[in-house]
Fold Carboxyvinyl-carboxyphosphonate phosphorylmutase.
Amino acid sequence: MAQQNGVKPVTAVQKLRNMLADPDKIVVCPGVYDGYLARIALLEGADCLYMTGAGTTMAKLGMADMGVATMNDMRDNAAMIASISPTTPLIADADTGYGGTIMVGRTVTSYIRAGVAGLHLEDQVVTKRCGHLKGKQLVEEDEFVSRIRAATIARQQSGGDIVIIARTDALQSLGYDAAISRLKAAVEAGADAAFLEGINTREQAEQLIKELDGTPCLFNNVPGGVSPDFSVQEAKEIGYKIAIYPCLGIEVVYPAIKKACRQLFDGGKVESVEKDGKRWSPRELFEVCGLNESMEFDRQAGGSAYLTDA
């Protein structure tokens, strides 16, 4: 990153660490899975983004979140999203790390080089499933800890930085005590933050924060899942430092596109996607994705393609 006036700009990962260190801050991350959603979230004021693994699998592969996305699928999507605003932190799902310790190390290094500010690694088997589905299978605690240890070693050897978030799905099948044991062991191995998936009650969440005193904890808001639908304010009051909303885009896009398709197929015309009684023009939609900035860049470089307004 280029220096300005002799001062090195703060990197995205350092911004994320600063946010986590701020006692009055909760990091709120809208879930995005493509560049268009990321652009919209940024225009609306997001200061941190979350790349959802479920959304990436659905959007890029057209498949449910059943462990079918590869490291390359996830890394490439994360790199694209991170590149849109390189100084805005992006936290990205890294699933199980996609293999043994060597592969976990490769995944972490790849995410660092892709510009990702934070990632989470979980304790499911490689053929994983969404954390809010039943029947999840877990690796032993020692194997989970080895994944976290591999991540911290890879981070150190890379010469870069990334916030490592340890996620456990043990609550459903092994119980609260086993889940806490795994998170504490992961933090001891070098994880920066903890993520207990599938929290059941506010009391359980408060107990988590108490037991992991000093370790930033992440809340995963999945409406219709197994956890309470905490608002940002509620999550902050409980003591969470990060709140991710992975279904934000998935949930609202489905009914909107479904409705528009029904209007087209049943009535021959889309009527609903309007603002102030008018449809959105291509120009307005392209502006969401940096049309004006791209045209100005071309002009500054001496290009002639956009001397007249588009």
Notes: The chain has two domains: 12-246, 255-300. The chain has a mean pLDDT of 92. Strands lie at 27-32, 49-51, 90-93, 118-121, 163-168, 193-196, 217-220, 242-245, 274-275, 278-279. The chain has 13 helices and ten strands.
